[in-house]
Amino acid sequence: MFRSSNNDDFSGSSDLNEEDMIKDPQPDASTSGNLRKSVSQSTSSLTSNGSVESISATRFSHGSRRKSKRWRGWCQRRGIAGLALLVLVFFISNSWMLYRIRDPGRAAGIKVKYLKMNSSTVSIKEELVKLGKGKKPQKTIYARLLAKASHALAENKPEPKDLWVDHDNASSWKPCADQRDWEPSEGNNGYIMVTANGGINQQRVAICNAVAVARLLNATLVLPGLMYSSVWRDASHFGNIYQEDHFINYLRPDVRIVKELPKQLKSLDLDAIGSVVSDADIVKEAKPGFYKKYILPILHLNRVVHFVGFGNRLASDPIPFKVQRLRCRCNFHALRFVPKIQETGALLIQRMRQNMSRLGPLDKHLLGPLAEPKKKGQRSHSTKASRYLALHLRFEIDMVAHSLCEFGGGKEEQKELEAYREKHFPALIELKKTQKLPSMAALREEGLCPLMPEETVLMLAALGFNRKTRIYLAGAHIYGGKSRLTALTTLFPNLVTKENLLSSAEIEPFANFSSQLAALDFITCTAADNFAMTDSGSQFSSLVSGYRIYYGGGEMPTIRPNKRRLADIFVKNNTIEWSVFEKRVRKAVRQTKRVFSRPTGRSVYRYPRCLECMCSDQP
Q1: Longest Cα pair distance anywhere in the chain, in angstroms?
Q2: Contact 602, 595 (CB under 8 A)
Q3: Helix H segments across 353-436?
Q4: Strand-pair partners of 220
Q5: Where is the composition biased (Low complexity) (predicted)?
Q6: How far is the C-alpha of 80 from the C-alpha of 589, rounded, in Å?
Q7: What is the DSSP letter of 483?
């Protein structure tokens, strides 16, 4: 029907397994009793002949003295050997952390740790079964820098004063997308249906874009549907994630929203009458004029249009001021999670804050009434003990494969990623055949490769985060499995996921619902005292950082690494000194920590600091 360009982002959230280890074997038992047994056997072999007995007795007496001397010498030598062994054990124990970093796969095969989850202990047998099912880990790269990071963290230096504060003075900017100065839309041009594709993050954007299009066309919006995907495998409906009545009522002054089509339209074959519009029919980032020219006539003719997919199909600019504000109103005010998700999100936040009852700046916007302390007078001021860092590690296989980069796994890794591309990104395979693409080294130099877990932990250590920092890890299946996280969990042992914080009974209602699990990550990351992303292009990270800008009042710092600048630093990993590495990383991150007003053409969901979404006291 129309021209199109597809490029949907992927992100999500899923389980993260803890690392397994195998216990050291015990040393063999001592055989010191063999000497006494030998002496006893020698005495029993003597005959009853008198002369022989006399000679034998004399010889035995002299032999006993010689053996006694040899026994004392043997004991002295054994004592020296024992002392040497003790020194060796001490040396090995002090080298344990560095040993694990340099060869995590071998380390995981020699030790066993009891994994404590919600006050329960997983048996060694169960841990060994898990270990047997895991992938063979690759040898860790950046071993030299990781060793230096390990020593730096062991020194336990004070954290930089500005580590937990925003570098931006945003006190003059206030949320005001809830303000309206227009008449309600009657929605009498027809009905718009939308089935949003992708994960929860893409669906959230599609929903708010559909609200804006409904207002542009003076149409009635049917409560959005969520497309089931073989990738996400989540059968959730809108009402399983967001509060339906709040969404409809809050936007009533803007757009007429109904829960279903009228009966007379339900029986129509929408595909047959040309009312089904897919992403292939709409140009990406389509402008309002496109919808008025091509979609409005369909509404007039058939009274209904069904958008299937609707990923990134409405431009950021140019959009009428009030419609742009409506998009912000939808994202920051109308989409409220259902109580089931809010309750579990509140548990995660509470446990990350170590059960301290203080409220964060965003709690009430994320949790509603559940943000209030259970008992009056329980509020407490922010303390170092209760703050935490949230980390979105965007290193899932889809991201890794699509990047065309190399991640230290050699030919086996490249073979696996190529097979994934053939199945999920056939267009990329064709592109490789027909065009000469940049080399892996060039891609990394330009900052086009996802940050690896090893690079992420080096960045956090260089920024000055303490080894005891509590870190909440969000993200889907990390490529390479638990072995790829060894450096991260070794240098920052207080790293947890929702699967660690929640009991099996608490997380069971969300099993097999990836979008609902992602909603829990969204709440916990957004409420964090500091948030670090590893890919600024991630839809999840964009929505989280935008929410923190809108409601944070300049008090919610977000770390947005410039991968190109970091790549220039990492390339010197074999020669650079740690002090120089620290200084360069901090400078690179500090330059991206400040928040500017929304650039033209950029998303209001990610950059809400604009007059359409927020109000400023300054002219």
Answers
A1: 132
A2: no
A3: 363-367, 397-403, 410-424, 426-434
A4: 191
A5: 1-15, 38-50
A6: 54
A7: G
* Half-sphere exposure of residue 261: CA atoms within 13 angstroms, side-chain side: 18
Write out the two tokens for 426: 């056939």
Q: Which residues pair with 193 in a beta bridge?
A: 306
Cis peptide before 339 (omega within 30 of 0): no
Is residue 428 packed enough to be buried (19+ CB in 10 Å), middle (13-18) or exposed (0-12)?
middle
**277 contacts 307 by C-beta, under 8 angstroms:** yes
Asked whether the beta carbons of 355 and 237 are under 8 A apart, the reply is no
Whole-angstrom distance, CA of residue 509 vs CA of residue 341: 10
The rounded distance, in Å, linking the Cα atoms of 76 and 78 is 5
Entry pTM: 0.78
For the chain, the first-to-last Cα distance in angstroms comes to 46
Q: Please tell me the distance from the alpha carbon of residue 32 to that of residue 272, in angstroms, as a whole number.
A: 92
| Other C-beta atoms lying within 10 Å of the C-beta of residue 133 | 10
Q: Is 96 left (phi over 0), alpha (psi -120 to 50) or beta?
A: alpha
Q: Which of 561, 525, 562 is nearest to 546 (CA)?
A: 525
C-alpha Rg value of the chain to the nearest Å: 32
Strand partners, 559: 532
The answer to which of 178-187, 351-360, 421-430, 483-492 has the lowest mean pLDDT is: 351-360
Residue that has been written with the tokens 């029919």 in this structure: 281
Which pLDDT tens digit goes with each residue over 444-494? 999 999 999 999 999 999 999 999 999 999 976 899 988 899 999 999 999
Closest CA to 546 of 474, 592, 599, 603: 603
Any idea what DSSP says for residue 219? B
State which amino acid sits at residue 345: G
Strand (E) or helix (H) holding 226: strand 225-226
What's the confidence (pLDDT) of residue 172?
83
Query: Which residue is it, tokens 């997983």?
Result: 122
CA angle 290, 294, 296 (to 5 degrees): 100
Tell me whether residue 584 is exposed, middle or buried, using C-beta atoms within 10 angstroms of its C-beta: 0 to 12, 13 to 18, 19 or more: middle
Q: 95-108 b/e with 16+ CB inside 10 Å = b?
A: eebebbbbbbbebb
DSSP label at 46? -
Q: Which two tokens stand for residue 403?
A: 């990047």
Q: Which amino acid is at 70?
A: R
- The per-residue pLDDT for range 554-606, each reduced to its tens digit, is 889 999 999 999 999 999 988 999 999 999 999 999 888 777 789 999 999 99
Q: 34-43 and 50-94 helices cross at what angle (nearest 10)? A: 170
Pairing state between β 120-121 and 191-196 = unpaired
Q: In angstroms, rounded to a whole number, what is the distance separating the alpha carbons of residues 40 and 44?
A: 6
Q: What is the DSSP string of 153-199?
A: HHTTPPPPTTTTS-SS--TTEEE-TT---SPPP--BT-EEEEEE-SS
